[in-house]
Amino acid sequence: MSKHITIADVAKAAGVSVTTVSRIINGHYEKMRPTTRKRVEKAITDLHFIPTASAQRLRQTQSHVVGVLVGDISNPFSSLLAKGIDDILQQSGYDILLMNTNNSKDVEKRALQRLYQQRVDGVIIQPNSRNFEQFAPAINANIPIVIVDREVDNQPPYIGKVTSANRDSCYQLGKILYQKGYQNILTVSARFAEASGQIPRIAGIKTAATDNGLTYHNIETRGHDRQWLAKKFLQELNELSGRTVVVSLMGPILFDLLAIFKSLDLTFPDDIGLVSFDDWEWSQYVGNGIFLLKQNMELMGNLAANKLVSQIEHKSFISSTTLLPVEIVARQSL
């Protein structure tokens, strides 16, 4: 096994200090003799030395690395959110350290600790915990943060946030459903994260149902499979009278609902209404198209990254909240 070459080995071979080698690695040649620089660069070449990130940061005040925590990288929403963040950070000269927290508060806490240890310049968080206390250590460590997508309780007003107008859009949806003659709203949720974006959606629809005299029920699918959902769905549906609309509160649930509708020989909008969150391009070709509440995931990531870069470069942790509108894409499933 070949020996791992360190910055100390280079310094010894060149007859200089570790600090001098670090300065050369990071491009700081001020007040340095050309012969010294050539000697160090030759030692680096001869020893086949590859600088580590920690060596490169030895004389830097910034790492030019930003930590990005997403709840579930397998969810297309999280993937597009991360892409929107990376598009801006790359242009601004920052690399991202992307970490999947699997919608777990414990995993999230450990991931944050690793990011602090890596001396990242900032963190963008799609949170799992609803309590801001989980993220307070970043402030104590002078690491700017931006919360994205999900809402957190007790978040200081000066901490940046970018999210969708989930509550308001769902309240407007409830009014539309009433105007279209529906008597019952049945939502289907899968709140894996404590700080789920489905919480304000449920609140908006529930308030709209109350204000417009509609019945409201929710089926929480967490921990259950499609077979369980089909049984529970049929049970709920049979207990309702009048026109019913089903609202998928997160995109992936839509796949299960479409399979269940097919197995029960239900068509929309004749037998039942159907609404889904997120932008599924193929949804326009299902039946005569599925009615959508569409979020712009990449734009959300762009704005969050811009907020963070502004804080980093201006050395100010003061930021603001941006609430993105949710586009209603009216199609024939209602």
What are the SSEs and their pairings?
Layout: H1 7-14, H2 18-25, H3 34-46, H4 53-56, E1 65-70, H5 76-91, E2 95-100, H6 105-117, E3 122-125, H7 136-140, E4 145-149, E5 160-164, H8 166-179, E6 184-189, H9 198-212, E7 215-220, H10 226-238, E8 244-248, H11 253-263, E9 273-277, E10 291-294, H12 297-314, E11 321-324, E12 327-329
Name of the CATH first level of the largest domain: Alpha Beta
- The residue-averaged pLDDT reads 90
Measure the end-to-end span: 67 Å
How much helix, percentage-wise, in residues? 40-55%
Instruction: Please mark out the parts with pLDDT under 50 across 5 or more consecutive residues, or reply none.
Output: none
Question: What profile does the largest beta sheet have?
Answer: 6 strands, parallel
Organism: Limosilactobacillus rudii
Protein name: LacI family DNA-binding transcriptional regulator
GO molecular function: DNA-binding transcription factor activity; transcription cis-regulatory region binding
InterPro entries: Cro/C1-type_HTH, HTH_LacI, Lambda_DNA-bd_dom_sf, Peripla_BP/Lac1_sug-bd_dom, Peripla_BP_I
